[in-house]
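Tokens in:
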């Protein structure tokens, strides 16, 4: 019985680690999204520590999945651009950039 429980724990740990790596792989590298308005917000996920500061500053723009920030969508108006600017200023690793045309 003890061996079965030990094997189940190892199996579960293996599945969790593999799942985490799979999700991280999908959203790693540069996460950027363009919606055709000329605005481009970019996160260098390799430099990101996953603190979530940007998500707190602009929850409609940024998301956090498994400790990796991603871009949900581009800002649609002046207020959302200002929230992105605040996220850029507050980012401790300066891995967010934006180009607003």
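Residues out:
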């Amino acid at each position: 019985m003890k061996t079965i429980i030990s094997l189940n724990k190892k199996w579960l740990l293996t599945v969790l680690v593999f799942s985490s790596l799979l999700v991280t792989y999908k959203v790693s590298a540069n996460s950027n999204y363009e919606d055709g308005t000329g605005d481009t917000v970019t996160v260098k996920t390799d430099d990101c520590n996953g603190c979530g500061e940007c998500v707190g500053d602009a929850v409609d723009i940024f998301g956090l999945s498994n400790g990796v920030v991603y871009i949900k969508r581009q800002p649609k108006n002046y207020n959302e651009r200002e929230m992105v600017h605040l996220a850029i200023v507050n980012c401790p690793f300066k891995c967010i950039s934006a180009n607003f045309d």
